[in-house]
């Protein structure tokens, strides 16, 4: 099955224009997991921050070019990152400045010691404005700098013996709750036409060019469907090559 340009444009028309995610010093595998969840739920963009005090090679990238990093993320995320507008930053300030330029002044940090629970409906409803959700690395969490710039801090309440979550699991929980609130309040906004057209020009390979259908299960099912045909063709070719 192929994904046509029309299909991708249809997906873009349903992208959520009021929410983005920023990940600080997160490992490649977890970036890929977060990206896959975010893209599937309609998020259009993702920001990656790798500060100078955190060597990129410790995050799984090594000293690689942006193109190589993109290729690695595409492979690990099962191509989810191919459909996201991803921006890399070398500092927290650079990331926050770009978020501000894009209209994301509402910065919501997830921190285990935050006083406000993710599910506190009485709190100022941070989820309804244009919002950037901030997540830190597995071992260190968000830096003091990022936490200091956040407009809101929320925590995911944990009730079990395990008192920590993988960053990808945490991001999925927070993003899901944020989208639930936005949908319930009718606060979601589609991408503005200029932004939609920009993403189309950036991410689409060209008019009328078939694109891969990025679904592993579908690819496997298609391979199983055509396997008997390929095997039969191979047997015919072997029979033709066999001397009579």
Record field, number of beta strands = 9
| CATH superfamily (homologous) name | SPOUT methyltransferase, trefoil knot domain
Residues in β-strands, percent:
5-15%
Q: Please give the share of residues in helix.
A: 40-55%
CATH topology assignment = Alpha/beta knot
Which CATH C-level class is it? Alpha Beta
Oligomer: single chain
| Lateral strand order in the biggest sheet | 4-3-2-7-5-8-6
Q: What's the gyration radius in Å?
A: 21 Å
Mean pLDDT: 81
SSE topology string:
EHEHEHEHEEEHEHHEH
Coarse shape = elongated
**If helices are DSSP runs of H or I spanning 4 or more residues, what is the number of helices?**
8
The assigned structural class equals: alpha/beta
Description:
The protein is α/β, with parallel strands linked by helices and 244 residues long. The chain has a single domain, classed as SPOUT methyltransferase, trefoil knot domain (Alpha/beta knot, 3-Layer(aba) Sandwich), CATH 3.40.1280.10. Helix content is 43%, strand content 15%. The chain has 8 helices and 9 strands. It has helices spanning 5-13, 28-40, 66-76, 92-101, 144-149, 167-185, 193-203, 216-241; strands spanning 2-3, 19-24, 45-49, 85-89, 106-110, 116-117, 131-135, 152-155, 211-212. The strands form 2 sheets. A 7-stranded parallel β-sheet has the order 4-3-2-7-5-8-6, sandwiched between helices. A two-stranded antiparallel ribbon has the order 1-9. Helix 2 (28-40) links the parallel strand 2 (19-24) and strand 3 (45-49). The longest helix has 26 residues, at 216-241. It is elongated and about 85 Å long. The chain starts with a strand and ends with a helix. Residues 232-244 have a biased composition (Basic and acidic residues). This is tRNA/rRNA methyltransferase SpoU type domain-containing protein. Residues 219-244 are annotated as: Disordered.
